[in-house]
UniProtKB/TrEMBL annotation:
It catalyses: guanosine(46) in tRNA + S-adenosyl-L-methionine = N(7)-methylguanosine(46) in tRNA + S-adenosyl-L-homocysteine. PANTHER family: 3-DEOXY-D-MANNO-OCTULOSONIC-ACID TRANSFERASE/TRNA GUANINE-N 7 - -METHYLTRANSFERASE (PTHR23417), TRNA (GUANINE-N(7)-)-METHYLTRANSFERASE (PTHR23417:SF16). The lineage of its organism: Eukaryota, Sar, Stramenopiles, Ochrophyta, Bacillariophyta. Its EC number is 2.1.1.33. The keyword Acyltransferase does not apply. It is found in: Nucleus. Belongs to the class I-like SAM-binding methyltransferase superfamily. TrmB family. The active site is at 178. InterPro entries: SAM-dependent_MTases_sf, Trm8_euk, tRNA_(Gua-N-7)_MeTrfase_Trmb. It holds the Pfam family Methyltransf_4. Signal peptide: none annotated. Pathway: tRNA modification; N(7)-methylguanine-tRNA biosynthesis. GO terms for cellular component: nucleus. This is tRNA (guanine-N(7)-)-methyltransferase.
Length: 307
């Protein structure tokens, strides 16, 4: 006679519509596990997204109590409508944690950058819901804090320009992205010639691009692609040491903690920070460099036959 399987310890909601975690309670990660990665190029679920950035209201679901939304001055009632409009329109993320995972860095950046608006981007639905509940729980536990961070589910390889205007971002983080080891899968990598041009468009002059991984080959790829792009320049070791965001990137992500805990790859974490140079895409392209191999994702084959 076959033995029956032990019953799962997972809490069972009284009805199918009842969530596992109540709003305001800290979610338990084991109930929100998902595949480590997915293919963003063949991810065919429908995402809702605005046709242009100014049509999206960030205060409705993401930052309803953003620090910049201060109470109105009752002595100036005639200015209420105008001031409310300007306050709402001024709330927009300027720090992105792309592929935020379970939200460790997104939450850690909130108190470090109180005058910035942080947004974690994640493509996996269950993981996004976990981070959302985690942020809600932190807001409940620490009144008045963590109002400048949120999370959103989207495909960052497709829809960034639908949400963010050019020159609006101060920082973009890529922490332990999928290495996509096979050469045929390299187009899926979140750092590429084509996407770097998009990131350069979104970043302000002087804005920073942060990359960290525990895979040496992927780190070399990051360095190669970023160093070759005309609108990015690498930060010095002194600049990275002085940047508190680098330390958080190394210590606060779940994947970074896992590397330390399990001792994978000899505890090595490879990282680099690149700065958006003060220039524009038009001036970066010249007659001399237009046909360079790899320029803006274009590969030129000269006097050779493709296999």
């Amino acid at each position: 006679m076959a033995k029956s399987k032990p019953r799962s310890k997972r809490p069972r909601p009284e009805s199918e519509s009842e969530p596992i975690t109540a709003e305001g309670d800290m979610p338990q990660k084991r109930f929100y596990r998902s595949r480590a990665h997915c293919n963003p190029l063949s991810f065919n679920e429908n995402f809702d997204y605005p046709t242009r950035p100014d049509l999206f209201d960030w205060t409705e679901d993401h930052y309803p109590n953003h620090p910049s939304l201060s109470p109105h001055d009752d002595t100036k009632p005639n200015d209420d409508v105008i001031s409310t409009f300007h306050s709402l329109s001024s709330v927009r993320p300027n720090v992105l944690d792309i592929g935020c995972g379970f939200g460790g860095l997104t939450l850690a950046l909130s108190p470090l950058l109180p005058h910035h608006t942080i947004l974690g981007l994640e493509i996996r639905a269950k993981v996004t819901e976990y981070v959302r509940l985690r942020i809600v729980a932190h807001r409940k536990e620490h009144p008045g804090q963590y109002q400048n961070c949120s999370v959103m589910r989207t495909n960052a390889m497709k829809y960034l320009v639908n949400y963010f205007p050019g020159g609006s971002l101060d920082k973009i983080f890529f922490c332990f992205p999928d290495p996509h080891f096979k050469k045929k899968n390299h187009p899926r990598r979140i750092v590429s010639e084509r996407l770097l041009t998009e990131y350069a468009y979104l970043l302000k002059p002087g804005g920073k691009l942060y990359c960290i991984t525990d895979v040496k080959d992927l780190h070399d790829w990051h360095v190669e692609k970023c160093s070759a792009h005309p609108l990015f320049v690498g930060c010095s070791e002194e600049e990275m040491v002085a940047d508190p965001c680098v330390e958080l990137m190394r210590t606060e992500t779940e994947e970074g903690k896992k590397v330390e805990r399990e001792g994978r790859f000899g505890h090595d974490k490879y990282y680099m920070v690149y700065k958006r140079v003060d220039g524009n895409l038009e001036s970066a392209v010249t007659a001399e460099n237009f046909f360079e191999t790899g320029q803006f994702g274009v590969e030129v084959f000269e006097n050779e036959k493709r296999a």
